[in-house]
Amino acid sequence: MKLVFDVLHLYYLPQYLPVYRELLKQNAGTATFIFYHGVHDEIIKEIIQQEALDHVWVSSCEQAIEYYIQHQADWIFFANACDHLEQVHKVSRTVQLGHGIGPKTSYYTKSNTPTTVRFVEGEYRTQRLKQMYPEDTFVDVGFCKLDPIIQGQSSTIDLLQVGLEPDKKTLLYAPTFYPSSIECFPRDWPNTFANYNILIKPHYFSLSKSKYKKQRELLEYWQTFDNVYLANVTDYSLVPFLASADLLISDASSALFEFAALNKPVVWCDFLKLRWSYRGPFAFRFKNRMDQDYGEYAEIAVHAKKYEQLKSIVDEQIANPALLSKERQHYAKKLAGTLDGQASKRIINYLINH
């Protein structure tokens, strides 16, 4: 079986790699990773070497499509919607494997252009997608990104090596790029949390796109504090951070649900920096950006309505990590499906059988 993984963005890779490793484990075939030239080529080359990936470089989606038509893999993986699928489907079957399980409506709308199969996390979302797109194929496999943690095979952050103190509790701040809480944090907030290690893992776009320059300036300033480690672009995977932290602080990010699925405490920041086009009479745009279940999902975490509440909430959750355990487990099943570390195996088995 010949697989191809389309890595349009580097942050797709943590979702693909568990499936790739399962393919090798079962000796079920070969895989090629398609990388797109950009500002981080040298970093990607390091990752390719570390993971020993068979790979091809392209400069555009059109060039990638040409490659797919020419090389005719059995299955091609996409992490998001893709144009020109009608051409690809003449020679190959396709998979959509989303990179996150967050609360945005895009989770559903990216199935507007249907792949041969979409692998989904949990019965609830599978049924919703089937109702929205009754002619398409959706298969509930679970959330393969967490397989390495559940199996106890995930790497972790070496706190001592990155200048932190292993005897302290560790907080993970993992904000998304928009709408984000980054600009709402004080410049000196790490001082307030001096009794904790702080791992900061922003979204890839916050570190790589010019339009988020102000976010990057704040993040780089926070890196100067002794109790902070700021992930850089080479830290492309959130998984080691999820495995290393005792508590997560985040906003409208899929990291909230991925961390909660591990049944560890989450603090959800309700204070967000919204563009003027998302405020006042345009607030409906923010609501439209979020899934219809956004309000219900909120029960998975303790909420900080404003930054000033954050420290006391974090202290309480660290002291009592089991407080929302039942809620986390309920929504983890709804959003991530079966968490047994076997999602990648179910994916490979499906591909073999079809």
Automatic annotation (TrEMBL):
Annotated GO MF terms: CDP-glycerol glycerophosphotransferase activity
Pfam families for this protein: Glyphos_transf (PF04464)
Record-level GO cellular component terms: membrane
Entry-linked SUPFAM superfamilies: UDP-Glycosyltransferase/glycogen phosphorylase (SSF53756)
InterPro entries assigned: Glycerophosphate_synth (IPR007554), TagF_C (IPR043148)
Record's protein name: CDP-glycerol--poly(Glycerophosphate) glycerophosphotransferase
The organism of origin for this protein: Thalassotalea marina
